[in-house]
Amino acid sequence: MEGNSTxxxxxxxxxxxxxxxxxxxxxxxxxxxxxxxxxxxxxxxPVRDIAARAGVGVATIYRHFPTRADLIVAVYRHQxxxxxxxxxxxxESAASPYDALRRWIDQFVDFLVTKHGLAxxxxxDNAGFDTLHAYxxxxxxxxxxxxxxxxxxxxxxxxxxNALELMRGVGNLCIGADNDPRYDARRMVAxxxxxxxxxx
Amino acid sequence: MEGNSTxxxxxxxxxxxxxxxxxxxxxxxxxxxxxxxxxxxxxxxPVRDIAARAGVGVATIYRHFPTRADLIVAVYRHQxxxxxxxxxxxxESAASPYDALRRWIDQFVDFLVTKHGLAxxxxxDNAGFDTLHAYxxxxxxxxxxxxxxxxxxxxxxxxxxNALELMRGVGNLCIGADNDPRYDARRMVAxxxxxxxxxx
Amino acid sequence: MEGNSTxxxxxxxxxxxxxxxxxxxxxxxxxxxxxxxxxxxxxxxPVRDIAARAGVGVATIYRHFPTRADLIVAVYRHQxxxxxxxxxxxxESAASPYDALRRWIDQFVDFLVTKHGLAxxxxxDNAGFDTLHAYxxxxxxxxxxxxxxxxxxxxxxxxxxNALELMRGVGNLCIGADNDPRYDARRMVAxxxxxxxxxx
Amino acid sequence: MEGNSTxxxxxxxxxxxxxxxxxxxxxxxxxxxxxxxxxxxxxxxPVRDIAARAGVGVATIYRHFPTRADLIVAVYRHQxxxxxxxxxxxxESAASPYDALRRWIDQFVDFLVTKHGLAxxxxxDNAGFDTLHAYxxxxxxxxxxxxxxxxxxxxxxxxxxNALELMRGVGNLCIGADNDPRYDARRMVAxxxxxxxxxx
DNA sequence: GATGAATGAGCCTTCATTCAT
DNA sequence: AATGAATGAAGGCTCATTCAT
Lengths: 200, 200, 200, 200
Description:
4 copies of one chain form a homotetramer. Chain A has helices at residues 21-41, 47-54, 58-64, 68-93, 97-113, 118-123, 130-153, 163-174, 185-194. By secondary structure, the first copy, chain A, is mostly helical. Chain A folds into 2 domains: 18-66, Arc Repressor Mutant, subunit A, CATH 1.10.10; 68-194, Tetracycline Repressor, domain 2 (Orthogonal Bundle). In chain A, 38% of the residues are buried. The A-B interface holds A 120, 123-125, 164-166, 168-169, 172-176, 179-180, 182-184, 187-188, 190-197, 199 and B 120, 123-125, 164-166, 168-169, 172-176, 179-180, 182-184, 187-188, 190-197, 199. Chain A binds a DNA duplex through α1 and α3. Chains A, B, C, D: Residues 46-65 bind DNA. Chains A, B, C, D: GO terms for molecular function: DNA-binding transcription factor activity; transcription cis-regulatory region binding. Chains A, B, C, D: Residues 24-83 form the HTH tetR-type domain. Chains A, B, C, D: Keywords: DNA-binding, Transcription, Transcription regulation.
């Protein structure tokens, strides 16, 4: 929502460490480059490739993002935050809790499907992505959970559902969705969400 | 089920090259070793590890299985065949076409969930796995398609469903299902299958 | 002992460049930090570590001490000067020239043994340490030479001894003396000095 | 004495794993190259340099010598063994135990002085050289100890001497001895050995 | 003057694949 | 046929040194 929440110091931020005329530019270039390279080669892309694309040296990446997970988190922070904030908003504006849930999942899927390889790494059990996983889940699971609860309370869906599991399922369904016209992740997710309905 | 019949000597095996005293033994050792290593380290495990476990030299792997995809296909051929053959059988024995579909999917999921990393590589867009993908789909999509058609004909599920897509969805849902007690792929797949029901 | 008199403003300090309000303070902080880091990580410690410890930027080090050798020299100037000045003093106060020599060597050894890695770098043939070597030798060899001469003149030691060589031998014996309780450099040096005695 | 004791299987060695027509040649090339590079650049020389000089790929080094210490030990094994075996022999052939000790030390010094950088690494407290240190000391300290004991028993030297310490002292004195005509390690060692004599 | 961001060379190590034995 | 030694391309990471602010 508010752009670069982490880097922040946006408006006032007096005490925030200044001196980033170029550093700022580099950080942005790095994020853009990483986003682009991630789309092309996945989030495991060589550090060198990202640096080259950003037009900076490799060490610059390490300075800004000590670990790969830090970089990935930074790259996708915007969307994750936007998604997190969309939950409560939808709950108010949608026709019903179930509808809010459906639309929120749609937004999440839109996000994942357009980021090649992101869904895959989200499921990776590769240690070192722990902080990445933690960030995604910490931020989004509560939101999803609240949507589920509301829909369940309204009797629109079953009540035995687990938000973490659902999110992982949705995430999984998005893997490989770009790049292959024969597979439409949105349709599959729609089936999954339809499956949440109380069974006869 | 039937050894590794498909590996070669397909049906008649007329002019099949002879001389397999030890070659055969090696091939079997290789398959067993690969299966074991795949479970431990995933299907991207170092060639050397597999060779070491099989007690053969690395070059022997390359002789028998020129590409990694060949090896993976060979390793899982049994189960894929078993799964393919189970389709028609279930259609006859199950209470209804939908029930047959459900149980067939269950078997497929059982297979994938117990093979660490297999589901992931099945979705990988990594060129070089093309033959792997082709084999899985060629063999299983028709089976799944027939089950879907039967269930649709019986009015038990929607009729706008695509077997390839469904299989990929199910495969996706199995990614990362081992090794993480917080995620139960079978439950997610059950939701997906439930979503196939005609919507009110 | 006397600040860092040799660093500049040597004797009269006629046209010495002014403006040292903070520059001075930085130089001192740098020397202290370097001394501390040298003890911890040896004289080849990363420039960054020293800068960080001094609370200054790396470039400040380069401004004050263009080469690493310059920094090392500056760090140890005090002790070297003290050692140099102790020679003549000991020659007057000691019981005999040999005793003066022995005690002077003791002081030199005390110095080296307490500076982790200094003895090692003193022997390093690494170009770039030339000025370091030169400084140590220029300053101390004449002193040692005079002590040797006096002892030889008194017939207390052999007369075929070379001060430079002796100092390097003593310096070598001090390498690795810290940090290893199984090796006592002082004892080895004592043997060496004992070996200076006229042989029967 | 018998050349390549570790690689062995020299004469009979039936059960020894064969198949080393070229591997052997490479191992030798590697040892020669390493020895040469060590002389030039010290034992910390880049793996690549050694590989290049040997005319092999880097991985070949890792195959033969998994750690750097393994390589260094292998490179100097010959001389260490020869030195170890020379001890008892000298004790029998020399005019006196002290003379045997002196000549044995001479041999050790000859070895070290001709290997640029070896003496230095022998004193390095760098972890990872532990096995290297262990090898040298395990092999040579007992030999030196016996020579010291014999000389002490004969009343030719003081009896409070420690072999490990003496060897480190001698080793230290050899550091930087090549390459600098102003420093003669042999002369310094001779002083040290002279210092072993019972003091008046 | 001081700062610390950026640079990029350099090193280590792993692994798929080829090839002589 | 089988072997496993050799190869060399990658890729990760560090650190001395320069330079814009």
